[in-house]
Amino acid sequence: MTWSNVKLILFREIRDQSRDRRTLFVIAILPMLLYPLLWMSFLQVAQFIEKKPSKVLVVGARDLGDLPPLAESRRPAGGEPGGPAGARSGYADSAPPLDLHFASDEPRGGEPTTWDPRAEARRAVEQGDYDAAIYFPPDFADRIDAFQQAVGERREPAELDEPGEEPVQDDAREAPPGVPRPEVFHSSATEKSQIAFVRVRIALDQWSQEIVRQKLIEVGLPTAAEKPFGVDTADVAEGTGRRGTAMWSKVLPVLLLLWAMTGAFYPAVDLCAGEKERGTLETLLCSPAERSEIVVGKLLTVMLFSMATAAWNLVMMGMSGGLLLAQLPQFGPPPATSAIWLAIVLVPVSAMFSALALALAAFARSTKEGQYYFLPLLLVTMPLVVLPMAPGVELNLGNSLIPVTGVVLLLRSMLEGSFWQVWPMVFPVAAVTLVCCALAIRWAVEQFNSEAVLFRGGERLDVGAWLRHLFQDRQPTPTVAAAVSCGIVILLVRFFVSLSMRQPQGFQDFAVIALVTQLAVIAAPTLLMTVMLTSSPRQTLLLRRPRGTALVGAAALAVVLYPTVDVLRAAVMRLYPISDEMQEGLARMLAGSPSLGYLLLVVAVVPAICEELAFRGFILSGFRHLGHRWRAIVYSALLFGLTHAILQQQIVAFVVGVVIGLVALQTGSIWPCILFHAIHNALGVVVAQVSERITPQLLDRWPALALLVSPSRDGILFRWPVVLASAVATLALLAWFKRLPHWRSAEEERYEAIRRASQDEE
Fold first, then answer.
1. Would you call 80 helix, strand, or coil by DSSP?
2. Domain ranges of the chain
3. Mind listing the pLDDT tens digit for each residue in 365-391?
4. What is the DSSP letter of 392?
5. Which of 268-277, 586-595, 634-643 has the lowest mean pLDDT?
6. Which percentage of the chain shows pLDDT scores above 70?
7. Which helix (H) or strand (E) holds 535?
8. Helix or strand or coil: residue 716?
9. Across the strands, what pairs with 497?
10. Which residues are paired to 184 by β-bridges?
11. What is the 3-state secondary structure (H, E, C) of 372-429?
């Protein structure tokens, strides 16, 4: 790579972008106007926000007796709006206001004598006349007095009835009468009613405390007995300059990533898709610069604009927001070290988003099409950015391995001043981010090396012609689009089916759900699309007769691979533990299985047939038209992993799917894959059942067995010599499979020829 060429391309692109007034306005001028206007708008809107009192009906107030008043003044139900304004709760004046309306204790004229006050309160809320209603049962005050009197008459536990007699325990005494409970009616269908419910609960709690204080005064006890101690608080962040950092630590990382992505996307679209429209891309490709040099020059340009956009927006956000929030006692300005951490993280984040934006922009035919690709990129990125904001999500080894999410969590911890507590997580977060950057840059280089991508002509979508081409001009194997469509259909149908079916309560329910999922959700769409979209189901589904050695090798590979996969499964469970509720649900699903044969049929045989026909048959055959065999294997394995129910299963299934995909390509047959899949799942079932019988006493009687496995809380664990032997044998068998002669698609042959030609030129 000639860096002088990269430098020339970089300066050329920066000069072109600097002449674009729209780019300069978005990067430099818009943030200066946006954030001050945004904060001004919030202040203006806040003037129109007021706490309106909740309209609450009180039924049964006559039974309150000598208790402290629930309200300072009472307005009868149905009173005029201009009546007395004293409808505030007497013990909730500091809380949000309540507009209390006291219902008459007698039925209104014309109503039957069987008038039910409780039903009246419920009906008033249902009809929307009131936001909430409080119903006091009959003799409410008398029952409170009876309860307090009964409690006062009870003796202390250590009190003796007679000298030498054992003390009478509390549970042996007669229980006092039950405490009366008022009933609050509200409606979860309206937000006003939910707010009123919260306000009523606060008011009733304060009223209850006032009743206790009054009773303490009546018996001559100090009111401090109600609350024996108070609590003094001290904010240790006051002296560190980090007051209110918790808010900034959540806002700044999110804004950093979103603005870095936004600042990279639009310059990338103009540098790639825009040059296609202007006709200047061909001139650049004809220059002495190599494709990789062109990509690096454009990438550095996009990175500069991405970093400038993110940095300037954060500066304006911090200046305007910091000045405003500093006026509030619970907030403060951003910490002084935040600029350092944000600048460090901004470089790799901008590189990753710039490479992704550059690859998508190179794939687009026009700037309009390129702008459409921003939404999918945003939809994929937003869950990863928002996940760290969920309660309870902390930075650990498992979360640090999630792209983007680990960056946000690490940056949040640094802004909170917890660097020395989380510094070990810097290495996995940096490694994952750099790997993502490398993959994104490689994808961008491949896009520029593909003539079919760079010079795609503009097409108008004719649905009729597309459907005729789809069904009439069928090929022996599906296209890449058909493979992607099949995977998406399976995922969507599985999602809706899983939501529509109730949770299994036993093995019979689990078996029904598993069989329906395999046959109707996975196998049926695959076979239907095979018949409709391909001309050779045998070639599409790899229904060739395999060699006997391939079957033996697949069976041996499934056996020797299992200990390694079991260790991987244990590691995944340690990184991403399953909750106790989920473990209990899984155990309940598999409880009561009738026989081992039936269990193997449901868990091993049927999934092996259905899933292999779908993912190593139809989907893998379609992805082979990409021309890159490993890419086809990884994409099919990714879809295979996503079809599993929980995250832990998805990770392990992806790894196993890569191995099965290699077996499928090297043998050219689906039957070794089905055999491998069935044996692998069957081993999991057998080991799970055998592990219940392996106890320390059994290992003492069989020392040879103790050399292979060890018991644990989750079953049995293979010892490290077994795992090491498993890994070595697995690598040997995979090397044997890789040497087998296999069929290549036309795209794979073309890709291999181009790769060999480029190596010869070097």
1. coil
2. 54-226, 242-454, 463-761
3. 778 888 888 888 888 888 888 888 777
4. T
5. 586-595
6. 77
7. none
8. strand
9. none
10. 134
11. HCHHHHHHHHHHHHHHHHCCCCCCCHHHHCCCCHHHHHHHHHHHCCCHHHHHHHHHHH
